[in-house]
Amino acid sequence: MTYACFSVEIADRIAHIRLNRPEKANSMIPEFWRELPVAVDRISADGEARVIVISSEGKHFTSGMDISVFMSGGLDGDAANAHVSAEAFRHKIKSLQETFTCLERARQPVLAAIQGGAIGAGVDLATACDCRYASSDAFFAVQETAIGMTADVGTFPRLVKIIPEGWARQMAYTAERLPAAKAKEIGLVNEVFETSEALLDGVMAIARQIVAHSPLAVTGCKAMANYARDHSTADALDYIAVWNAAMLRPDDIKEAFIARGEKRAPAFDGLKRLPE
Asked: Using a CB cutoff of 8 Å and minimum separation of 24, what contacts does 216-224 make?
């Protein structure tokens, strides 16, 4: 399937989603918001890929939401029916939020390789991924404040759980550009690479490390990390106990130890394809 704003390639069990509108700074036009959940849900359900990498072409990762999204309904509400328009706009916002929630919902870990600017909704995209990596020229900006609105697609529920709350507030209040080095210092990105080429090479190397492990164990790690983030310690401990009681796979444990002893790569069964 072809998409308007990005390409999708699956090779060596790595799904690579590449934003490919560099001439428009990879801005997120209406098609992007509709198509990304379709692509990610398809990868997740299919199970062929064991990790997803998101990168982009050109100078910037993404300049965020394209102005055409604002003009496609919602902001031009009928003053005579303001409350009715507001109710419809709420549903529009929720549909945009789903575009990035699909990344958290995916069974596979999602790694973001960020060069240049991750601006506005680009921050929301990045924070919905499992891990973020940046080139030395990268920067992050909660740009919505500078254009007269409060970010609503995912900034606040996610960013404040990744970096210190004070920094999340400062980024939002000031709309300042947070450079890659500072982003690493406060935990927004895992690693900074010198160039965009080194960035993609490094992220793909990490993806290959993930691919080498049991897909069932990895998807369990993602499910547990997401659950623990949003629940109490007691609830998270109970959930992992239930998860392993149901899904701990002795064959994978046995294969991991045998492969290590035989000095070879282990061979694990992949995730099952989900019914459509």
From this structure: 216/247, 216/249, 216/252, 216/268, 216/269, 216/271, 217/249, 217/252, 218/50, 218/51, 218/108, 218/109, 219/107, 219/108, 219/271, 220/244, 220/247, 221/109, 222/107, 222/108, 222/109, 222/130
